[in-house]
Known about the structure:
3 domains, alpha+beta
Amino acid sequence: MKKIFILTFVLIFSFTFSKLSFATNDKNIYEKIDLFGEVLEKINKEYVEEVNQSDTIDAAINGVLQSLDPYSAYMSPELFKNMQTDTQGKFGGLGIEIGMESGVVKVVSPIDDTPAFKAGIKAGDYIVKIDNVQVQGKSLMEAVKLMRGPVGSSIELTIRRKGEKKALIKKITREIIVVKSVEGKILDKKIGYLRLKSFNSNSSEQLVKKIKDFEKTKNPHGYILDLRNNPGGLLTQAINVTDFFLDDGEIVSTKGRRIIENRRFFARKGDELKGKPLIVLINNGSASASEIVAGALKDHKRAIILGEKTYGKGSVQSIIPLSDGGGIRLTVSKYYLPSGKSISDVGVAPDIFIEEKGENFKANSPSDNQLNYALKLLTL
């Protein structure tokens, strides 16, 4: 039965890639497929321990996707279902956005007020062990699965951080993560402060509601849009949010191999702030959709960008369902700012560089030096 399984997979694999061979005109593709089948059979017959063939195939699929970039990945039916919950604003876990770099899990950003954030996890941290399991060699989704668990259970992460000689051990208790996308308040009696923590399915709706409420009841002199530690989310929401602050012009463009992925998005007439001063706060944990907003507002000179350079995730992933109930997260295009620049691996540089101060830095606190600097600029 095992041999039949392998041969069946190879036949399916061969059929699937036969179309690819015509597209790539690669004469060696069939030889590579045969070699793949041979390797599977050798593993099945000669590996020191009996292996789960389904897991082996999953690992092979993951290997293909991980060879493309840090963000493409295979999701089992269970993970695919959990992922769909994530974009609705409520899910279980630690509260971090992660990617892969050199076979190790890298933190894109911790989400504010989540267990990971409270434990001191920072953007750019490398997770090398999850409990007693080495991360090296694991796929992104395998790492995600290891980090998920029953609410109230504990997990131990071993972290490597730039500038730290020793590994850091972080013990974290899992919680149901409820992402309150938008928070807002009036600071110094005349500045509207808007903190956008993520770009989920209702972020833009929450944000414009908050702005209209401020305009009606407080009439602020200016606004601060805080995108620090915002790992991104839905592209459509980034476009909607940027549109609120622009009167016209291009917001972002995407370019991919398929014609359908080559798109340009423009602002509609009507600035929700009516031209009032705007400062956008960013840091290394501002990624993806956050970078679209900050980059577009910078290119159009609509806002002053203040803080630290962003993460540099300038690609768009599509979630593609598969027949087994799972799915793949596949990079299908890259996005470009109105200036034509890509921020992939580069990020958006602030107009005014202000580094976070303090080991236990907390946004929107009395010791938040970046926010305090922004307030001074708006009250001059």
